[in-house]
Design brief:
With 449 residues, the protein is of the alpha+beta class. The protein is built from 15 helices and twelve strands. Strands 1, 2, 3, 4, 5, 8, 9, 10, 11 and 12 form a ten-stranded antiparallel β-sheet that branches.
Length: 449
Amino acid sequence: MASLVASKEKMFITQTKLLNEVTWKTVMQIAKKHAKSAAQHLSRLSGAIGPERIYADWQWWILAALPFPHLVRVLDCFFHEGIKVFYRVALAILILFHKHSTNQNSEWYAEATKNGVDHAVDKFCRNMPASPTKLLRTAFSIRALSSQYISRVFIKTEMTLKSKQVITGSRLVRSRSSDNLPTSQSQVNIQMMSHTLTIREGSHSPGPRALSMGVYPIQAIKSQILDQSELFTLWSWLPVRITMYQPVLLYTTEEHGCSLTTFYVRVEHHEPTLLMIKTCNNEVFGAYCSTRWFERNQKDERGNRQAYFGTGETFLFSLYPERAKYPWVGCSIGADGKGEEKVSHASELFMAADSKMITIGGGAKYPWVGCAKEDGTEGDAKTTHASSLFMAADNTMITIGGGEGQAIWMDENIRFGKTDRCSTFNNPPLCPSGDFEIRVLEVYGFSGA
């Protein structure tokens, strides 16, 4: 029991009022799709009471009402596979109740019309006419009800309820068209901040930019990893256009558990993302990832899944015990990859457009200057394949940086990892030992980016 309580791999019983509401609304949603006839039957029988009141008791159907032999079998599966077992069993109860109460002459139809469907379902569970084996067979024979689908419904429901709480408590509701757009004042604030850039922003001991007056979106972050000083340092390393947008906490091991599946569900469609890791030895480091994690599923022209993806805007950082930013080596001119950044603002004018024109490029050279050789000629001396391995992921791990080693590697349980020097960022190991155990992982997205 102690190991079950301490488990970070599976979520068992929710412990807050909000998440309890999320669970029963999740049952209601998946029942409408995967037990449609039973859900419609329940809705018809509910009458004035409404189906919501019935679904709110769904956990008690299992934990309080099922006969002991049934409960033992259900809990055996539950401890092995987690909360998805309860969802399946709840749907199985609805399916069996529908089967036994469809006939208007049946005792369960009479019970529902006389005492209410909520009491009828509870009594049906206490006198379950199906054997434990049949109950579980019904539960696990529901097709296309995957854990990933349940997680998506759960997360969507959770985010909807949270957003309603925010809207209810806010004094001003903005129009949809103006949401997440940077205001003129925010752009002034960013310019004020950008004027404090250090000359060698990517050096191994960069000083934080001076804190200018104004309000920045990062001040809303309540991180369990970084304090405000460290957040401002990290903020100064982000691309300036990204600092205009409001950071949003997408995933944290403290709230969402330690699961790569949950990580992907919550994070994979956001671009860019900011990963921050705090180890059990209190080292703090991470990465700015320029591309969606969903790109791990993309295939090349031959139909093969691409191993690595991402762009040169990706970078690594370390904030404790050492503060340092490690940009892509393609943006460095020194032979050791530690020189000043050569890609100026003028050399990053890739594309522009308005209602009258389209512009591509802001200079005379044809290739991007970030891929030029040290002597100014075009070439790929600084951007070999080994130095362009930005991000990789599958169902068993996440990797950032490659070539001669991996800058950050995490396992499928988001518990253990390792860090080495890699060719992509020419970084030292981000923690002295090379191997680390994750205490907290936080992933932020940028609303409207």
